[in-house]
Amino acid sequence: MNVLVVGGAGYIGSHMVRILDREGHTPIVLDNLCDGHRESVVGHKLIVGELSDRELVDSILSENKIEAVMHFAAFAQVGESVVNPAKYYVNNVMATIDLLESMRANDVKKFVFSSTCATYGEPETVPISENEKQEPVNPYGFTKLVIERALDDYAAAYGFSFAALRYFNAAGASPDGDIGEDHDPETHLIPIVLQVALGQREHITIYGDDYETPDGTCIRDYIHVDDLGAAHLTALEKLEPGKGIKLNLGTGNGYSVREVIDACRQISGKEIPEVMGKRRAGDPPKLVANAAAAKELLGWVPRYQKVEDVVETAWAWHQSHPNGYKSE
Ligand code: UDP
């Protein structure tokens, strides 16, 4: 299948491109390279441009005989979305609707969408199932929820088929060792801790230890980026006209910030100094997936269950690419 991977030069998108290729599909990447890296998609067709450029997207869909679109091009920082919501509404909502409209005009109706556990806000029941009410507590989560709702309507009215995949915390790197996480600035826990291990930062600041969790630090569900990719692939193959599926993608195992730091110490063999900081605005205490539905519907079971195994792949990437793609 010819698959347009929007944001395919980004962290999760680039791992997806590799999996699609390996499984016999033809990925075509559209990325504006604002956060993505050309080096992460070497050997694949890359079109550098804006998702909001309707003429460009129309021509890509028709000229490449695209049958399905996977959409990874979104801004995804909770804190930033609070300070600069316009950036999130313009890109995550408006440009995505532009994309859906281009698909409609070109009769491309298969869509795999990166959604998020942030659509649940502060869940009442953890592990979180898909039936949990969706009440996002920040603009980022809300922009993703808006698109989920739009997709319901596009499926019902226009026969779109879609999968909205609600990621928990994407982490790790390809075991191939040549693609991985490289954000600037980096805000995510595991890469920051490993930068401390590499001596690039003096310490890791823990954002609060006064949460109602066993060790007081926040608990998250860290899902390996290749496991995410595998779920996307199966979801794509299972799409049915006029129908949508919405699934959590997580391991079901929660790790506290302290446990993640300890795992990084164990894998890297480095001391990793820590400093206690204040809570970060918008951080719910505990987000862990109930991933039973993805298992049942897709037969998907994450290969990387333990955070140590996820960290091991990330550590290999950071060691071989201490400055990310700039190291090459
Ligand atoms: N975190 C932290 N220090 C950091 C970065 C993150 O203590 O320098 C915590 C953060 O508060 C959250 C967890 O680590 O509880 C995961 O944060 P991350 O930004 O990686 O992902 P998020 O859960 O926000 O999507």
Describe this structure as you would to a colleague.
The chain is α/β, with parallel strands linked by helices and 328 residues long. The chain is 38% helix and 17% strand. The chain contains 10 helices and 13 strands. It has helices spanning 11-22, 54-63, 78-83, 85-105, 139-158, 189-197, 225-237, 257-268, 292-298, 307-320, and strands at 2-6, 26-31, 45-48, 68-71, 110-116, 161-167, 169-171, 204-207, 219-220, 222-224, 244-249, 255-256, 274-277. Strands 3-2-1-4-5-6-11 form a 7-stranded parallel β-sheet, with helices on both faces. A two-stranded parallel sheet has the order 7-10. Strands 8-13 form a two-stranded parallel sheet. Helix 2 (54-63) crosses helix 4. The protein is globular and about 55 Å long. The two termini are 31 Å apart. Uridine-5'-diphosphate is lined by residues 78, 169, 187-189, 192, 204-207, 218, 220, 257, 280, 283. Uridine-5'-diphosphate (UDP) is lined by residues 78, 169, 187-189, 192, 204-207, 218, 220, 257, 280, 283.
Bound molecules: uridine-5'-diphosphate
Placed side by side, the strands forming the largest sheet appear as: 3-2-1-4-5-6-11
Question: Which oligomerization state do the chains in this entry correspond to?
Answer: single chain
Task: Characterize the biggest β-sheet.
Answer: 7 strands, parallel
Q: Which structural category do the helix and sheet elements fall into?
A: alpha/beta
> Helical segment tally?
10
Helix content: 25-40%
Q: How do the helices and strands follow one another from N- to C-terminus?
A: EHEEHEHHEHEEHEEEHEEHEHH
**Can you count the beta strands?**
13
Radius of gyration over all CA atoms, rounded: 19 Å
What fraction of the residues are assigned to beta strands by DSSP?
Answer: 15-25%
Overall spatial form: globular
